[in-house]
Design brief:
The protein has 2 domains: 159 residues, Jelly Rolls; 151 residues, no CATH class. Helices cover 9% and strands 38% of the residues. The protein has 3 helices and 20 strands. The strands form 3 sheets. Strands 1, 2, 3, 4, 5, 6, 7, 8 and 9 form a 9-stranded antiparallel β-sheet that branches. Strands 10, 12, 14, 17, 18 and 20 form a 6-stranded antiparallel β-sheet that branches. A 5-stranded antiparallel β-sheet has the order 11-13-19-15-16. Strand 5 and strand 6 form a beta hairpin. The longest helix is centred in the C-terminal third of the chain and has 18 residues. The radius of gyration is 22 Å and the shape is globular.
Amino acid sequence: MSSIESATDLDPVVLPAIPPVHLSNGQVATLQVADRLQRGKQIVGRFETSGLAGFKIASQGRALRVKMALSMDDVSVSGWHDGKIAGPALPRFVQIRSQGRLRQCVVLKGRNPHARVAFDLAADEIPDDGLICVEALDITEGDGISQDVRDALRGRVAQDGVAGLRLDKIVFEEPPEKDFDPDTLDGCRCETSSFISAGGLANVNRQGPRILRCGMLVVNPVLPDTFGSGERLTLRLGAKAEPVSVIPANWRRVKGELRWLRHATRKLLGAGAPTVEKVFSLRDGDLGAPEVTTKGNIAELSLPGGTGAPLLVLLGRCGGVTPVLESALSRS
């Protein structure tokens, strides 16, 4: 009995793309697999829900660096692909995995937020056929996530967080020999570097403090020799009261003015620092009492670096005052 071959002479032969590869279009042969990802023409694609994209890349036995640009827009809602629209008001919490391993997480909230992801793949993680798979999963899905984390996020983040998420661009390239590694970054640049995810930025070129409207942030594993790869991390947190002019002129405005005055008084007395509720490793769970030092209106949170797993920081609620990430310090 002769064997039956699955391929035929009519099947096209797709050669792996040779790095550096910059993809911002889903209509290319390099994108070999699209599971619950609708291919785009001016973007790589849009996820219907938690899904996967597989790219054929010729690594030639070398490590590769993967960079991704993600975003949300008005279509980023559950059921967008079949006309059943239901937009969540809560933040999205999305895992980015590759070759079966969790790499980084992004938290997205607000109008048209953008996020960046960056990670390295070792040579032995890339198969001979060059197929590199990238997954976007809701935090409630997949294995390797501590149940402590999922319990803590219940009610704080949206269900089906990947629905409508855009994969705007993906890059595959060889890692450089050495990256520029500053000691300190301001809050916004922490997020554009993929070290911190705190809701996504509408303007990726913005600099200065980062307002933390989600009440949480994720500290991601970072690339070697880049900011955040040191042994200790220090996040410098402040607080900001919303201007009373943005509050409607009714009883809510009166309450808002009282909160603003209360916060202003606390700052004047040097007691306006935000509180850190909990710190979790997404892999190992609750890390115990947060290591926080308060200096006047600033709280400094000390975290271990190089943990290999994202860290979730939950911030305490303090009477309508919004916490702010002023800056971060990385030390060897």
